[in-house]
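A quick aside before the break. I want you to see a complete sequence-to-structure record at least once, exactly as it would be stored in a machine-readable document. Don't worry about memorizing anything.
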Amino acid sequence: MIAFTKQTLPDISRSLNFFNVMTYDLMNRRDNVTKHHSGVELSLDSINAYLEAGVPPQGINLGFAFYVKWFRTDPNGGCDKNPIGCKTVLMEDPRTGADLGQCGAFAWNDRVPRELAFSFRLAQRDGKYDEVGGGFYYWDSEENIFWTWDTPEAIARKFPLIVRQKDLGGVFAWGLGEDGPEFNHLKALTEEVKDYKRVHPDQVVVEVPEPELPEPEDDLHDYKDEL
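That is the input. The structure line, written in tokens, reads:
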């Protein structure tokens, strides 16, 4: 949002048909406490920032993530009391910005890393939905790993809370191929879009004719070998 301010957005908007707001990766290795990487509350904060800066709701598309993220937590960081907002270990070198290997991500069509496979099976079995922040998560108390991702059910809950309530123009995902081979997240999102379009008219697009350009005059200048 550094370049997208209330002063600059009106000019930027005139050159764009829509904004794809990437409401995912909202937790990354620079963070030091756990949170949902694509949760409802943080996604709403992002959408509201664009709306307050003057972008019309029909010009905003909400982003969905078709992948899983994990983060190593501090064993003494308070995650046993509240896994949301507890301390992580240091995940990025503060001097060089290098990844310290304490977090990562993988898509649904990826092979789960061997060292994470058992923990992720627990996450899939015992994960839960956070009614406050609006995201699916699991904290592995044995491995000290925080998992965050959107299930198809979480997508079905997020869509009406943001797209419908804010009257947004559409959605997109990163990335479609990452949801294979079952494509359960894509199916869930597609159903929400179909239902939305039944009661939401398509945006009216005004076609702007291209300006007529004058015929070029004969140019006698010799350009050969100038570049």
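Two observations worth writing down. The first helix runs from residue 9 to 13. The CA atoms of residues 109 and 180 lie 5 Å apart. We'll return to this after the break.
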